[in-house]
Write a structure and sequence with these properties.
Distance between the termini: 45 Å
Largest sheet: 5 strands, antiparallel
Shape: globular
Helix content: 25-40%
Number of strands: 18
Strand content: 15-25%
Number of helices: 8
Length: 365
């Protein structure tokens, strides 16, 4: 079972939803980077459950412990081990699911592949696994700020049929965090909250879209063939639980355009480097960053676990009616925002380090 990602900035996550804890090991972080538990905790606090009535009421503080790789506030260059202990796990809440395959979950497919599964909360398939990604992403964030002042901000742009149209250049972290939905437009945010609450009361759930922008990304990150920057960003996004779609730049809308209307003309930039007059490429051309903002969107399906009765089968292929119990998000979008950011941060950190090796002969002597 693969639980690692990245080449030079390599991350391995571990743990199950209702086990002793969740965490990550980050290998390849350069030495002498300022790092503290407080820096990592900021992102974990945005991901944790129980933040509002719009999310699961599981009460986890998600307090991170740094077990290795940091000394006197600086990274050592050795592996950084992060651990978050589960304090509000209730595995008994899943006893009724031991021999049942939940619709649209990984229960049946995990059994089909491995012949064994942890039925307590979904095990490794649980969204709680993303604690490790967010913790590692927080380290990547500190690295990217230190080396290139790269900023990554994500937000909710759609929940159900409620959309919020906003210029990515205007989105700020403060505006995103101002409302529990993490939609930066107040009117749309309130409409989204009402839609989530209505779905919850009906025993149902909603999906939506998270958008993300990465600013100040230098030109040259990514590879032209298999490791295209957008391909690795897509993998980071689509490996997240409940994701069903990925777009970068103009995305699927490009199919309705002509080359003339879609191309991004180059203009002379004030920094002495070319810029593009538009950004339908989403900051990536030929698999390599071009210096413009990277713009992407990730589609999330409605939460699979719902309170309403659903038809399914048990492990012996007998039809059963399932009415799920326990604590679940009626919509994953608000908590998905820092998780999408983490995926983007991990990819950019890895490709930034790889570019340093590629660029070594270009450096002044």
């Amino acid at each position: 079972m693969s639980s690692s990602v990245g080449r030079l900035f390599r991350v391995t996550t571990f743990g199950e939803s209702h086990g002793g804890g969740i965490g990550a090991v980050v290998d390849g972080c350069p030495p002498r980077l300022a790092l503290s538990t407080e820096m990592i905790q900021q992102d974990l606090d945005r991901r944790r459950p129980g933040q509002s009535k719009l999310t699961t009421q599981r009460q986890e503080a998600d307090q991170v412990e740094i077990l290795s790789g940091v000394f006197e506030g600086l990274t050592l260059g050795s592996p950084i081990a992060l651990l978050v202990r589960n304090s509000d796990a209730r595995p008994s809440a899943y006893d009724h699911l031991k021999d049942v395959y939940r619709p649209s979950h990984a229960d049946y497919t995990t059994d089909a592949k491995y012949g064994i599964r942890n039925w307590q909360g979904g095990g490794r398939a649980s969204a709680r696994e993303t604690i490790g990604r967010v913790g590692a992403g927080a380290i990547a964030r500190q690295l990217l700020i230190a080396v290139a002042d790269i900023e990554v901000v994500a937000w909710v742009s759609q929940i159900g049929d409620v959309s919020a149209h906003i210029d990515p250049a205007l989105v700020t972290l403060d505006a995103v965090e101002a409302h529990p939905t993490r939609c930066p437009l107040p009117e749309s945010a309130e409409a989204m909250a009402q839609a989530i609450d209505a779905a919850r009361r009906d025993g149902d759930s909603l999906g939506g879209i998270v958008e993300c922008v990465a600013r100040n990304v230098p030109a040259g990150l990514g590879e032209p063939v298999f490791d295209k920057l957008e391909a690795d960003l897509a993998k980071a996004a689509l490996s997240l639980p409940a994701t069903k779609g990925f777009e970068i730049g103009s995305g699927f809308a490009a199919t309705t355009m002509t080359g003339k209307s879609h191309n991004d003309p180059f203009i002379a930039g004030s920094s002495g480097k070319p810029r593009t007059a538009s950004n339908r490429s989403g900051g990536v051309q030929g698999g390599i960053s071009n210096g413009e903002d990277i713009l992407l969107r990730v589609a999330f399906k409605p939460t699979a676990t719902i309170a309403a009765a659903q038809q399914t089968v048990d492990t012996k292929n007998n039809p059963v009616s399932l009415q799920a119990k326990g604590r679940h998000d009626p919509c994953v979008l608000p908590r998905a925002v820092p998780i999408v950011e983490a995926g983007v941060l991990l990819v950019l950190a890895d490709h930034w380090l790889r570019q340093q090796a590629t660029d070594v002969l270009h450096q002044p002597r």
